[in-house]
Design goal:
The chain has helices at residues 11-27, 56-67, 101-112, 145-156, and strands spanning 2-8, 33-35, 42-50, 73-83, 91-98, 134-140, 165-168, 170-177, 184-192. By secondary structure, the protein is of the alpha+beta class.
């Protein structure tokens, strides 16, 4: 099973974001971008990759233990950007702002679930990149370096406007099913954050 751990968007934020992204999509319509369907937008805490079904119970129990230590938290939509760099965009994202405990929750999920899913290969150091809370909204198709630079320039002129924010009240364990039509996500477990 191909799994990841995420926080879903509130429906009203998904709707507002998609309405604002319509303008961005129109402005970049000549660019080779595969846009993420609205129903697939989420904040990823950890991509586990291929994980045996036999690990599901233990993984869910681990996540429950983490989530019980964190109260719900507010997240604000804040800006448009790309990875790895504006001069060579491969992933287009909408940034998120929150209190420092969002980073603490991310780190706790990473630590608690380290034994599950994708493992380091012997002799290779894990790729450590800082957590950048975001929603992936598009992926750039295979293009030349010059086209990527042009896309980066066009992207830097765009904004998502005022979308607002939402309250993360639970974390989800999701399955990603790949198909020719794109990824389909299925929620396997919804684990609430500590109720106050």
């Amino acid at each position: 099973m191909r799994l990841f751990i995420a926080a879903p968007l509130a429906p009203e934020i998904r709707e507002a974001l998609c309405a604002n992204l319509a303008r961005v999509r129109a402005a970049l319509s000549r660019m080779p971008i595969k846009w993420v369907p609205p129903e697939n937008l989420h904040l990823t805490f950890r991509f586990l990759g291929e994980t045996p079904e036999s690990d599901l119970d233990a993984l869910t129990k681990r996540l429950r233990g983490v989530c019980l230590r964190f109260p719900p938290m507010e997240v604000q939509v804040a800006g448009l950007g790309c990875f790895p760099a504006p001069s060579a965009p491969k992933v287009i994202w909408v940034g998120l702002q929150s209190a420092p405990r969002l980073w603490t929750l991310h780190d706790a999920i990473q630590k608690a679930t380290a034994e599950f899913g994708v493992k380091e290969k012997p002799g290779f150091a894990a790729r450590r990149t800082p957590f950048t809370p975001h929603l992936t909204v598009g992926r750039v198709k295979d293009v030349s370096a010059a086209e990527r630079q042009q896309l980066g320039r066009e992207l830097s002129r765009q904004t998502v406007g005022d979308v607002g924010g939402w309250r993360i009240e639970h974390v989800t364990l999701m399955e990603s099913e790949l198909s020719a039509a794109g990824s389909r996500y299925r929620e396997l477990a919804a684990i609430p954050l500590l109720s106050q």
